Amino acid sequence: MVCFTVAAFSVELLYDTPWLFAIGLTVSSFGFIMLGAIGERYGTIAFASLLLAVYTMLGMEQGSDMWMQPMMLLSGAAWYGILSLIWILIWPHRPVQHRLATVFRQTATYMETKSSLFHPVAELVPQPTRIAAANRNAQIVAALNQAKASLLARARRGRLTQRHQALLQTYFIAQDIHERVSSSHYRYQDLAAQFFHSDILFRFEALLNAQANACRDVAQALSIGARYQHPKAGQQALLTIQQSMQYLLADQTQDASRIALLHQLDFLYKNLETVEQQLASLSDLAANDGTQESELADPDARSLGEMVYRIRRQMTLKSLRFRHAVRLSLSLLTGYGVIQGLSLEHGFWILMTIQFVCQTNYSATRNKLKERILGTVGGLLLGVPALYLFPDPSSQLALMVITGVLFFAFRTVQYTLATLFITLLVLMCFSQFGQGFAVILPRLGDTVIGCLIAVVAVRYVLPDWQAHRLRGS
């Protein structure tokens, strides 16, 4: 709330003095991004503060006094916080359960992707599957970090209360499963060539798919708060692999290279057998012997000295966060210059687009750019008939509620659809003032301008090309 207050009133005080506003925008943007060096939670607060500042700029067009708009925005933030606390008091486990469910869904998709490496085709080319698996793996890591943050928010000095122990053990099991299934055991093309005429690799593929289905069952049980019942398909798949391995090892005519590959498959079997045991243990976490881990490492800084130290340590060109802070600050300054130079009435959408599209590296920015433009265009195309079909303000209010809910539902899983729904929401909001059709072209134009500025900045301002980092290591 302190950051929100500073952001809102800074805009109100400096808005009518463009050169001071430009300096304040650049300095505050850099400072807010560097605040994320303290921890993930502070990074989220920093991003939200910048976003609130942009919304304050958008509201300046209505010409209210300097107290009205900040108090409305801060009241909305406070009201949302109160509702969130009430929600957590009624359903204290829900946020953690949903984040753990996301971990298991991502793990299931990763297992299915990796299982295709065990499909023995002639002249197997594993690289495309490896790249897809690497992307899935990154999503699992992000989901694990979010689940850990949610657990830490309920911990005292890294320790959780007894009622959260089952969720903590579920997190550790998910972490262990991820470590095991993400390991690389051998050159998959050699396995495919050597066992092309055997069914052993098909059996491993079936086992991974069975465990992927089990992970989805775990995710579903966590989502609805039900007890997980482990299926028998995984145990049956393990048994068939074991029988097949015994048959292949009994063959005395095999050469040394084939026997070495069989030993590698045996290591893989033992690894996946442990994964199966971990999944089965989720059926009854209360039956553990109390020897599991019960403490989480807290990555956030707690003392003021440690916070300052973390920020100072990031103040170098080698820091990805520092480079991103410089890029984003200069991008927002450029966007503000375009607004002032072209006297754009709704130009602050340029700044909002820059904030959402400008990521820490070029690849992520390019993906965000594509999703942002597709979502905006789709929202505008749907918005035109929606304004004709729902001319009444009351029906538009109902549509605003629906699109708002859908935006939050898709915000973290499908950004294109989230952008589509938030664009519809914006059109309905402006339609309440009789400006629904008037903002369609400015919204599209500002989105394109913001995307171009973000891409140019990420490409040319302190770029983070991975090849350069490899050569320098």
CATH hierarchy, class of the largest domain: Mainly Alpha
Predict the CATH topology of the largest domain.
Answer: Methane Monooxygenase Hydroxylase, Chain G, domain 1
Total DSSP helices: 19
Rg for CA atoms: 26 Å
The assigned CATH architecture of the largest domain is: Up-down Bundle
Number of strands: 0
User: In percent, how much strand structure appears in the residues?
Assistant: under 5%
Number of domains: 3
Portion in helices = over 70%
Structural class: mainly alpha
Describe what this molecule looks like in 3D.
With 473 residues, this protein is mainly alpha-helical. The protein folds into 3 domains: 1-90; 91-287, Methane Monooxygenase Hydroxylase, Chain G, domain 1; 316-473, no CATH class. Helices cover 74% and strands 0% of the residues. The chain is built from 19 helices and no strands. The longest helix is centred in the C-terminal third of the chain and has 28 residues, at 362-389. The chain is elongated, with a radius of gyration of 26 Å. Mean pLDDT is 82; it is low at 286-291 and 467-473.
Question: Concise description?
Answer:
It is built from 19 helices and no strands.
Features:
single chain; 473 residues; mainly alpha; Methane Monooxygenase Hydroxylase, Chain G, domain 1; 3 domains; elongated; disordered C terminus
Write the layout of secondary structure elements.
Blueprint: H1 2-14, H2 18-35, H3 40-59, H4 68-90, H5 94-115, H6 127-152, H7 165-181, H8 188-194, H9 200-224, H10 233-249, H11 256-281, H12 304-313, H13 320-342, H14 348-357, H15 362-389, H16 393-410, H17 415-431, H18 440-460, H19 466-472
Helix pairs in contact: 1-2, 1-3, 1-4, 2-3, 2-13, 3-14, 5-6, 5-7, 5-9, 6-7, 7-11, 9-10, 9-11, 10-11, 13-14, 13-18, 14-18, 15-17, 15-18, 16-17
